[in-house]
């Protein structure tokens, strides 16, 4: 069992809009490092099994979008959603959902998720390797709080969604963590 105190140092493969790119798809590849994303910032991160999946699309991402201004009022610089999906899938999902405030960060190779200790096998659903559902508060690259869904493990027959939601994280930031919410320990399978 390994305890992680800082976000892993990885390079994410992202796509950014660039009007100088000709044609109907004006986007180009841009590498973004963990340092660029988390350095010197207070960031709320939530990770989920996949774009376009039911809970992720109906509640997880939309609620973080909805509460964005409240997070900003708590000093949060950015909210990031990480999923083991490629940049094209994350872009189309964000477009369909109407995501405007949450930055959708593709972890296409699962490197960040693996180094976080959160990569699980979801072959029972035909998903392959994906992220376990969790949320965390990251301050200048240091993980200061993490909420990990219960029953962590490969081929889990359910998809727990109890503690990585926007309301739990916001309550924590406001210092009003809901009574009765069981808080997972800061431990990871490494």
From TrEMBL:
It comes from the Bacteria. InterPro entries: PRX5-like (IPR037944), Redoxin (IPR013740), Thioredoxin-like_sf (IPR036249), Thioredoxin_domain (IPR013766). The active site is at residue 56. It catalyses: a hydroperoxide + 2 glutathione = an alcohol + glutathione disulfide + H2O. The keyword Oxidoreductase applies. Residues 1-171 form the Thioredoxin domain. Keywords: Antioxidant, Oxidoreductase, Peroxidase, Redox-active center. The keyword Oxidoreductase applies. GO terms for molecular function: peroxidase activity. Its EC number is 1.11.1.27. Belongs to the peroxiredoxin family. Prx5 subfamily. Thiol-specific peroxidase that catalyzes the reduction of hydrogen peroxide and organic hydroperoxides to water and alcohols, respectively. Plays a role in cell protection against oxidative stress by detoxifying peroxides. This is Glutathione-dependent peroxiredoxin.
